[in-house]
Amino acid sequence: MTAGPLLLVSDHVGGCVHVLTVPDGTETGRLTGRHLSEHAGFLALPGGRTACVDDRRGELLVLDPFGHELVQAAIPVAVPAEHLAVDPSGRWVAITTGLGKNGEPWSDLLTVVDLATGDAARVRTRVSEPGVTVLGDGDPLVVLRHREPGALAVHRFADLLGAPPGCPPVTPHAHLPLPDDGHGDAQDPSCGRVFAAVGEGVHRARRAGDTLVAESVIPWGSPARGWYLRLDPRRRALWSTLRGGPADPLRWPEWTNQAWRHDLERDRTTLTDLGPGLVFRLALAKDHTAFTRIHPDGDELILLGADETVRRVPLPAMDGAPRRGGTPWEGVQRRAVAASPGMDWIAVTRGGHGEIHVFDARTAREAIHLKLGTPLNHGGHAMLRTQDDNAEGDPVGR
Asked: What is this structure's pTM?
């Protein structure tokens, strides 16, 4: 197999995973009949491997796009998968369950997996939509971020893995209170800290033995708030997109968006305006952070440089894109954006068209336009990797 870089693209509606070389777009692998959880996303593992969850078959997949066999392991887990995380060593995985196609939380199942042995266990925690991180430094800890009532619940991984059959209920070893509106999780492996995005800002806590100790809240510095949180492993920074404006989703074209970056070394926050419309997930490249903005007046790729320069690249419109007077979520096309912290390439999908645009972040120019054999309805999901890009420094599924 090629040494990369490689782009993994999941058509989670159509049930297909494509593996493509970048930037030329040669397909080196394909999985069919696999409907990956778009919400749990892709989880970077050492050596260029990737973990994800097949929501239809109920399996945790370990993919090795650089190896001779794409599927390295398939381990039964509880679904629908909500969030996916691993400890900093890349061995101990936790998968939470969420809504799926249901209107309210209904599942309390948590699955933990030892990737070294293939051992797995399922336990019952609490009906919620829990986020998850897995702390290392000796015996790993599973930290669940619950809502309503909000809490960071701490479990010893060994206790969970050793639970008897039958999905028994488990009680947290320790917990910290949290506001009820948490949404977004990150971990900094270098210091054993966990972060949770809530309305007032980012709550942080550090590991102390088998418990967590609360630390000061990082404010958003804006009337808006972040619903997504991730770590930049190259520059030790937290990133989010702050959404403000009217609460009514029918007025989504009026939503405001700001790129939020908090330097963990300097304890300094920077805000950058991204423009109105729908901006959600982001991707971290070598020297840039990439966002896509969807708006009835035109979509664009936004490249925010490490020197805080901003470049905007128009993107072709999508048939079935969100429109004025409708919501940006139900029955519409979206975009996925992918990058690797070891490269300058940026990949952007065009939902419903089965197309991918690959850009060079250094020049903000399109390098190639790829056409897949599947439509990528709802935008699909994507991950860009090399074998040594250290993307696993962010041990939470994206």
From this structure: 0.96
Site of tokens 């939380």:
105
Please report, to the nearest 10 degrees, the dihedral formed by the alpha carbons of residues 252, 257, 262, 263 taken in order: 140
Half-sphere exposure of 115 (CA within 13 A, CB side): 23
Amino acid at 380: G
β-partners of residue 385 are 6
Cβ–Cβ under 8 Å, residues 310 and 304 = yes
Residue 375, sorted as left (phi over 0), alpha (psi -120 to 50) or beta, turns out to be alpha
For residue 359, give every residue at least 6 positions away whose Cβ sits within 8 Å of its Cβ, in sequence order, or none: 301, 303, 313, 345, 346, 347, 348, 365, 366, 367
pLDDT tens digit sequence for 17-66:
999 999 999 999 999 999 999 999 999 999 999 999 999 999 999 999 99
Tell me how crowded residue 280 is: count the other CB atoms within 10 A of its CB.
18
The C-alpha atoms of residue 194 and residue 344 are separated, in whole angstroms, by: 28
What are the structural domains of the chain?
A: 6-393 (2.130.10.10)
Helix H or strand E segment including 159: helix 157-161
Tell me how far apart the alpha carbons of residues 144 and 154 are, in angstroms, rounded to a whole number. 7
